[in-house]
Amino acid sequence: MIGTVSMLAFAWLIVSRWMSVRQQVVHATPAWMIPIVGTLNISIVGVTLDLPGAAAVSAFGLAVGLFFAIPLFTMILSRLIFEAPMLQAQRPSLLIFVATFAVSFSAYLSVVGRLDLFASSLFYLAVFMFAVLVPKLLFLRSASPFHTSWWAVSFPLAAMANAALKFNLHQPSWPAQAFALAVLAFATLVILSMSVQTIAGIARGEQRALTL
Fold it and tell me: Is the pLDDT of residue 212 over 60?
């Protein structure tokens, strides 16, 4: 309950600020989606709670998250296409696009309770963005040293794995199962690798270098 109230208050504050203070397009990054899309997490958990009004609050979180995810995605994609490239340290956050649609799928599926055409469309969009962005990030990783900013890929990968497992649960097939297991294995290896590199960097006293 505390998390729900805090998340909704944070989303309200951010949207109010966007509508009150002029923003610069060049500052728009995928991280902008977190304060609003975060309301979708309310829907994932809320429907499982036996509390008065939990279903309504879950639907509210779903509505806010989905409504703002679409224009934000469009605006940030436009910035990426027409403005100067993001700083190299910010590029791992591109995978937040995957989390946006993966979490939207999980939230919608939780509220509706069945895998319909719209839920499938959200999942397929998450898969498409995953296929587009992961190769780019793997290339970036090979071309630059590890930084703590790479932790931005952790929760999108986890969200994608969770969505793939849920999709296979509702529509079981060997391709869906193979994809879910592959994404889960990939997410596990990436997070384990980042954990090892972060701990090793701290042990060597390279905290400052890891954040540059």
Answer: no
By CB atoms closer than 10 A (0-12, 13-18, 19+), residue 66 is buried
Instruction: Quote the pLDDT of residue 208.
Output: 65
Buried b (16+ CB within 10 A) or exposed e, 38-48: bbbbbbbebbe
Sign of CA dihedral 11, 62, 69, 37: positive
Q: Which domains, ranges and CATH numbers included, belong to the chain?
A: 2-211 (1.50.10.150)
DSSP, collapsed to helix, strand or coil, labels residue 26 as helix
What 3-state class would DSSP assign to 92? helix
pTM (predicted TM-score): 0.87
Separation of alpha carbons 131 and 98, rounded Å: 9
Residue 107's pLDDT band, with cuts at 50, 70 and 90, is very high
Look up residue 38 and give its two tokens. 């975060």
Find, among 26, 157, 18, the residue nearest to 96 by Cα.
Answer: 157
- Location of structure tokens 């090979």: 142
Of 148 and 96, which is predicted with more confidence?
96
Amino acid identity at 93: S
Looking at residue 31, its pLDDT comes to: 87
